[in-house]
Amino acid sequence: MADILPLLDELQAIARNGLTYSTNPYDRERYEHLMELASGYYGRALDLPPEAVRARLSTELGYVTAKVGAEAAIFDGEGRILLVRRADDRRWCLPCGWVDPNESAAEAAVRETREETGLDVRIAGLVDVFWRAASFQGQPHSQIAIVYACEVISGDLQTSHEVLDLGYRRIEDVTEWHNQHKRYAEAAYRWWRDR
Questions:
Q1: What is the pTM assigned to this prediction?
Q2: Which residues contact 163 (CB under 8 A, 6 or more apart)?
Q3: Cβ atoms within 10 Å, residue 108
Q4: Domain 67-194: which topology?
């Protein structure tokens, strides 16, 4: 029999995120139903009552860990780094995002780059792994950020609903950075320069 726990992990994550961010009552009803389904099947797989699973999912199932984000550092021939201006806080950052369930950090960096910039990239190397404490700049969770150097394979630069603007920029010319992204960009530049 196939292991359904990875599927249930993705379903409960979709349901929990939907319940967190959705304000539409019809969508909330669908996410509630999805959460009930995931809880029921988790209960069967783990031999627990669905109500107990639901209670545990509400506070995290399993060991609570830091959130994991993946960032992509992409340079042009002049040493300028590709940055996106975020729609949420209007600050500049590397293409980035949270790692989804059952996805590697490298896969997330490639996916987020495609979604945010229109470019298909491949991982060229690991720049560094960074840690941010909970409450840093008002953030509620601690975070591990994994920064990858990437090379463009194909595609054309284009914005998305998450991105107001994008382009290759010199690090020293940018004044409004999202969270620790200046630090990530500087580390990536050192990796690129020394390569």
A1: 0.78
A2: 84, 85, 86, 87, 116, 117
A3: 22
A4: Nucleoside Triphosphate Pyrophosphohydrolase (3.90.79)
Per-residue pLDDT at 1 exceeds 50: no
- Distance from chain centroid for Cα 70: 6
* Per-residue pLDDT tens over the stretch 30-60: 999 999 999 999 888 888 888 888 888 777 7
SS3 107: helix
Domains in the chain: boundaries = 5-58, 67-194
The rounded Cα 137 to chain-centroid distance in angstroms is 18
Tell me which amino acid residue 52 is. Answer: A
What digits encode the pLDDT tens for the residues 132-181? 876 566 555 678 999 999 999 999 999 999 999 999 999 999 999 998 99
Residue 22's SS3 state is coil
CA distance to 22, 96, 110, 148, per residue, from 107 (Å): 26, 11, 5, 11
Of residues 50 and 193, the one with the higher pLDDT is 193
The torsion region of residue 89 among left (phi > 0), alpha (psi -120 to 50) and beta comes to: alpha
Residue 43: phi and psi, rounded to 5, are: -55, -45
In eight-state DSSP terms, residue 131 is E
